[in-house]
Specification:
Length: about 140
């Protein structure tokens, strides 16, 4: 199932086939940050529990076993910077939410897939980054 992705200037529906026959919703250019339906539902639920005008900031920082680690944090909508890339996701059966990423982080995670698993072992959010030359066993850090 595809979902509209909105930016301040346009709305485009873009999907990409990913592993295990799961479809992920992408940014306007057909890539950006891919988010699978299970991850969108979980993020929509978490966003609703945050209350107010919150957005999800996704990025990278130095650190972790492989050199860089992923960051995800809910921030106030007023914290969006002028050069942030903004995507709006509208998952089926869950509230819509916005994801933002700063331009520097986007260089490292462009095309990344964010998935969610409710498995008891290895569950939670999982990152699949096509730009990573090496990843850590925990899946939360990488090298380029």
């Amino acid at each position: 199932m595809s979902s509209p992705v909105q930016t301040p200037s346009s709305t485009v529906t873009a999907t990409a086939a990913v592993t295990d026959n799961v479809t992920a919703t992408a940014g306007v250019d057909g890539k950006g940050i891919l988010i699978t339906e299970p991850a969108m539902r979980q993020l929509g639920t978490l966003m609703a529990s945050q209350g107010g005008d919150k957005v999800l900031r996704v990025g990278v920082r130095s650190g972790g076993c492989s050199g860089m680690s992923y960051t995800m944090d809910f921030i106030e909508g007023t914290g969006i910077l002028g050069d942030d890339e903004t995507y709006t996701y509208e998952p089926a059966g869950a509230p819509s939410f916005r994801v933002i990423c700063d331009p520097k982080s986007l260089l490292y995670i462009y095309g990344m897939q964010l998935d969610f698993s409710s498995a008891l072992i290895g569950g939670g959010f999982n990152f699949t980054n096509p730009n990573a030359s090496q990843t850590c066993g925990c899946g939360s850090s990488f090298a380029v």
